[in-house]
Design brief:
Elements (H helix, E strand, L loop, with lengths): L1 E9 L6 H7 L6 E7 L6 E9 L2 H9 L4 E8 L4 E9 L2 H9 L5 E9 L5 E7 L1 H9 L5 E10 L2 H7 L4 H13 L10 H8 L3 H22 L1
Antiparallel strand pairs: 1-7, 1-8, 2-3, 2-6, 3-5, 4-5, 6-7
């Protein structure tokens, strides 16, 4: 049983309006699909989490014609949860069908990235995973980022991180940031991430906090 970590590039006609909204506004740092109803048909019911201002998002969501029902719930911090029930249009249906057929499992969360790509992990046999890649609809560019044997414990911990946090942590480990003495600085990590040192430090801080909370919560 293997897993693939995928990055899906989307043409303009396929990008969801709310993904476009979040990607177009710098105040939104993270946007993730946490859970969805597995009985996907003409509609889909989903739970999202986003970091950023809730009110502008809620106003934009209310204007999306395919949204049948929604609720936006701010958290105590800088984020908010979204419940949304949506009617799937043709483009969304093709994308959903390619990665929800019965022979593979999509592992939450799904990351909707600022560069308008989608990051997701799928698990299955080599044959079923290849089928999913082959069935990607027109307008979707599939980039296989990682391939490996499925490990539930490792992947559960990784699910606590946004894709950008995971990238920062991976670079930090590879460059020796956590060695004693340190072999890399935050500036080194920022250079590889192509972001400001302050942003890299924030990614690392949030990644470390998420993993600590996951371990303490499980204990």
């Amino acid at each position: 049983m293997k897993y693939l970590r995928l990055r899906l590039g989307q043409s303009e006609g396929i990008i969801h309006p709310m993904h476009e909204f979040v990607a177009s506004h710098e105040k939104y740092e993270s946007y993730r699909l946490l859970q969805w109803n597995p009985a996907v048909g003409e509609t889909n019911t989903m739970i999202f989490y986003a970091e950023g201002p809730a009110e502008p998002y809620a106003e934009a969501l209310a204007d999306v014609a395919t949204i049948l029902e929604h609720e936006v719930v701010p958290t105590d911090g800088d984020g908010f949860y979204v419940y949304a029930r949506e009617r799937l249009d043709a483009g969304a249906r093709r994308l959903t069908d390619a990665f929800t057929h019965g022979s593979i499992v999509v592992m939450p969360p799904i990351d909707y990235r600022p560069d308008r790509t989608i990051g997701l992990t799928v698990v299955g046999t080599a044959t079923s995973l290849q089928r999913a890649l082959d069935e990607a609809p027109p307008g979707v560019d599939v980039d296989v980022r990682r391939v490996g044997q499925y490990d539930a414990g490792r992947m559960d911990a990784a699910s606590a991180l946004s894709e950008r946090q995971s990238e920062a942590l991976t670079i930090a480990i590879e460059r020796g940031y956590y060695e004693t003495p340190r072999e890399a600085t935050v500036a080194d990590i920022a250079q590889e991430l192509d972001c400001a040192p302050g942003t890299a430090a924030e990614h690392l801080r949030k990644a470390e906090a998420a993993l600590v909370h996951r371990v303490v919560g499980e204990g």
